[in-house]
From TrEMBL:
InterPro entries: Cyt_c_oxidase_su5b, Cyt_c_oxidase_su5b_sf. The keyword Zinc applies. Zn(2+) binds at C85, C87, C107, C109. This is Cytochrome c oxidase subunit 5B, mitochondrial. Gene3D superfamilies: Cytochrome c oxidase, subunit Vb. The modification N6-acetyllysine is found at K62, K80, K114. It comes from Caerostris extrusa.
Amino acid sequence: MALMCRNVKNSIRLFRAASVTFRHKSEEKLPHYIEHSTGLERKELLARAAGNDDPFGMNVLKRGAGTKDQPNLIPSFEEKRIIGCICEEDSTYINWMWVHKEEPKRCSCGHWFKLVEAKPL
């Protein structure tokens, strides 16, 4: 038992004798939050830093005239996109529909929508 206690004391003494170097507080610096980000989050942060407030095209778009000759243009990265049309201002539902490239689509309220090419991130 005495031998075991002596080994524990020696190991504690060795542990206490180990020196740890600390950097001065003035040398410590947290990296910028963009340096920590990766993947889509990084692309989004870089796009926002460049001035693009809607890098993924998720903001609500206001409808224009919406005629067959001048449809509402919807930016898209893909060949098709689902959109929602609030047909009346005080409507309590959204009319969802798929819009395909080069095929203008007419909503039940009479407005026309057309996909246009959007520049991906």
